[in-house]
Specification:
By secondary structure, this protein is mainly alpha-helical. It has helices spanning 10-34, 41-45, 51-82, 90-99, 106-121, 127-158. The longest helix has 32 residues, at 51-82.
Amino acid sequence: MTLAYLPEHAHQVRISEALAHKEAEHLRYSLDTLFALPISLTWVRDLAQQPALAEKVEAFASRFSRLQDQLGEKLLPRYAALVGESPKTFLDTLAFAEKAELLSNADTFIAARRLRKALVHEYMQDAEIFLESLLAAREACELFFDVIDKVSSELQRLGVPPG
């Protein structure tokens, strides 16, 4: 008998998958509402005087960071354990995810991780860096959503029962 996965890890990976889907849904809402606005350098410079818009940005940044944490610290390592892998570090986890074709590019995921600080702090200091970071984060969201979809497809393919 050949096991497709280690059943003792099935419940935890399904919990992480469900949470990732919920967090992705919230991030997608923030993404859609924020980027429906005409974002420009002037818009960024005016954020300090527009608390309602700043709050939208903060919600997006928070949700972006939370989903990234969920993927890198929970979903991908738990999926690795499910299939018998045991990456020791965050970089090992990303390398595994890339090799397993769950992540198209580990470097892009790492670059998205660097955006977190800029999304939280830079709009108060450097509008140009913040604008670039915000636009890069919008693109990184698609990477995150793609990872979730690929993990979900693999769980289904492996026959992992729903959580």
